[in-house]
Amino acid sequence: MKGVWALFQATRDRVQALVRSYIKEHEQTFDPNVTRDLLDALLAQQKKTTDPNSSFYGEEGELNILLDLTDLFLAGAET
Fold it and tell me: What is the tens place of the pLDDT at every residue in 19-68?
């Protein structure tokens, strides 16, 4: 099982690195007047959120965006 778990973690890390690079690219080219895709919509919500209890707020918001996009990527890859 240790080998399987290590493989899972390595694969997860590679996928999340890919998703992080996509998020970084979107952050650098973000225009609040143009929504190109789901990630732009999520970033727009995150930028306008001031409520610390929101799932879009701060570091928790960044993590939630990463995890949401990772889930979508893996779900799409699985099918």
Answer: 999 999 999 999 999 999 999 999 999 999 999 999 999 999 999 999 99
**Phi and psi dihedrals of 35, rounded to 5?**
-105, 105
Question: Is 69 in contact with 19 (CB distance < 8 Å)?
Answer: yes
What pLDDT sits at residue 75? 87
Q: Domain coordinates of the chain in residue numbers?
A: 2-78
Spatial separation of the C-alpha atoms in residues 57 and 42, rounded to whole Å: 11
Backbone angles phi, psi at 60, to 5 degrees: -60, -40
Taking residue 60's Cβ as centre, other Cβ atoms within 10 Å add up to 13
What distance lies between CA 4 and its chain's CA centroid? 25
